[in-house]
Each structure stands twice: as C-alpha cells, then as structure tokens.
Design brief:
The protein is of the alpha/beta class. The protein contains 13 helices and 13 strands.
Length: 321
C-alpha cells in the first residue's frame, strides 16, 4: 500500500510539473511582436504610425500586440541597423514608415512580412520596372500618393498671376524626385516656367529655400520627409519674402505652406494596420496583396500663413487643425 501511495504521489507531482510547464510555455509568448521602423519624427509619419498601431489594437486586442518602435532620426544607416535588428529578432511583422525605412527592411529580410506606409510609389522605391501594384514577395503596404495633377492645377487656379514655380525637395528621396517630375511636366505643359531647388539633406535646406524664395512666384513641396522635418526653416525663408508654398501633405502645409491637397496619414496607417492584422491572422497572403491607396484627399489651408500673405480663401477649402 505504501508503494502504491508513493507511486500515486510521484504521478501527481509529475502531473503538476507538466501542467506548470505547459502554462509557462503557453504564456511565454504574449501575442505578436511587431517591429515599427519610422524614418523620422514629423506630423505625417507620426500620424501613420498611430493609425497603424490603433488598427492592430482594435483587431487583435491590446494584450496581443507588442510594438517594438524604433526611429531612425532621418539616417539611412540607422534604418539598416534597425531593420537588421528586427530580422535577427525574427519579429512577426515589420511596418516600414517612409521609403528609406522600406528599402532598409527589404534588404534585411526576405521572409518576415514587411508592410510599407507613407511610401509614394513602390515601383520607384523598390526599382521595379512596369510595376503593376503587387510586389509579389514578402512586401506590400500603402501609398500616400495624392493626385499630382490636381495639386499642380491648384497652383494654377490659386495663383493665376504666377509665372515661375519653384519645386523644393530633397534630391536623396526618390519618391520626391518622382513627384516633382510629374508636377513639372504638368506645369510646363500649361506654359509656366518651372525651376528645381533640390537640397541634399537638412544641412542645406535654409540656403536652398532662400534661393527658391528669391527666384519663384510660388513654391511647391511634394510629400518629402526632409522638408517635412524642416518646415520652420523653410517658412523663415519664404514668408518674409511673401512667397506662398503649396504643399503635398498637411503636415508640411501646417509648418510652412498656405494650401494643400492632402490625404489623412492616420487613415493611411490604419489601413496598413488592417492589412497587418489580415496577414497575422492568416487571412491574407502578403505575396498577393496589392498596394492600397489613401482615401479621397482634402483641400486645406493654413489660416495663419494665408492671413500673413493677405490670401483670400476660395470655397471648398477647410482650415488645417
């Protein structure tokens, strides 16, 4: 009888240990780990990140998502370091916020799902000829491309007396170069003189902006990350010379512009988060996911700068918040 009791006690101990181990194992992974690589702090990218996170929390539950947020401070080498770190950790999914962040992540892993956001043109960003809208690998995402022809037409409609339009952008950002090429062709087709004013990084934004303000009747800035992070510098160059700026997105317009036709970056990020949830839940295959685009853009104006320049607000424009 004693032996039987000893055997039963031993079995009970083993069962308890096994149950404890099972519980420990099942609780060791608290949901999904999602790496977020954001190129730089500015209003548009910040909003996209917040929208992305909220969508995943709404879909999967806050307790089931762990966000590893990293900011590269607008440095491409730092982007690569962060992306390689995500790859070595084998995170469940990576969100790459802005083109250089996407490029770094694509170089770092071919297996972890990567979703880009705030990327204007994926064919340009990833050097894909005749891009059809599906990358076809471990990459997909959302595009912040607004109707460039409509933005160009805004310049003509809002400033009919303008003869020379300056295009102010960062030459190191391929999507900015793509946008100004489209806008330049449209404006030149309408008979305007168009001049490029390209800075290489934040160090020469002030000088290039001063030159642009001196030689332009109106300035256009595309969705450019370096410009978006240097709006105060641009505003200090353009506003005293009374040169209006039409911007490609709301954050830049808020900092240095007068008018914009802009998407909601929060909504764009939210859409990206919904795509991420579909991938993580096994409802979608990223290799067949088409690039998604932003909802209908809105016409907005910067009240402070418009008042400073004595610009009358046309119908159909709402104030930036």
């Amino acid at each position: 009888m004693k032996n039987v009791r000893k055997i039963l006690s031993l079995v009970l101990v083993i069962a308890i240990m096994a149950t404890t181990a099972l519980v420990t194992t099942s609780c060791s992974k608290q949901g999904y780990t999602i790496g977020i690589l954001q190129l730089v702090d500015h209003e548009a990218l910040d909003a996209a990140t917040e929208g992305f996170k909220q969508a995943l929390i709404d879909r999967l539950g806050e307790e089931n998502v762990n966000f590893d947020y990293q900011n590269a401070a607008n440095d491409t080498n730092t982007c690569s370091t962060i992306a390689n770190n995500f790859a070595s950790k084998n995170v469940d999914l990576i969100m790459a916020n802005a083109t250089p962040a996407l490029q770094a992540c694509v170089a770092a892993t071919t297996t972890i799902p990567i979703l880009g956001t705030s990327v204007t043109e994926y064919g340009v960003a990833l050097s894909i000829d005749n891009f059809t809208g599906v990358v076809g690998s471990n990459v997909s995402g959302t595009s912040d491309l607004a109707p460039l022809d409509e933005q160009a037409q805004m310049i003509i409609d809002l400033f009919p007396e303008a003869k020379t339009v300056g295009l102010l952008y960062c030459s190191a950002e391929p999507n900015s170069k793509y946008q100004v090429q489209v806008v330049r062709a449209y404006l030149e087709g309408k008979g305007l003189t168009v001049k490029d004013f390209a800075f290489t990084d934040s160090n020469d934004v002030a000088l290039v902006s001063e030159n642009a303000a001196s030689e332009s009747d109106v300035i256009y800035i595309p969705t450019d990350n370096t410009a978006a992070s240097c709006t105060e510098t641009i505003n200090n160059a353009c506003l005293p010379k009374r040169v209006p700026v039409v911007a490609g997105e709301a954050g830049t317009c808020k900092g240095c512009g007068v008018f914009t036709l802009s998407i909601s970056y929060y909504d764009l990020g939210y859409k990206t988060g919904e795509m991420a949830a579909d991938i993580l839940e096994g409802k979608a295959d990223i290799s067949t996911m088409a690039i998604q685009y932003a909802p209908t853009p809105s016409k907005m104006y910067n009240k402070e700068n418009c008042e400073a320049l004595g610009i009358t607000i046309p119908e159909g424009y709402t104030p930036l918040k």
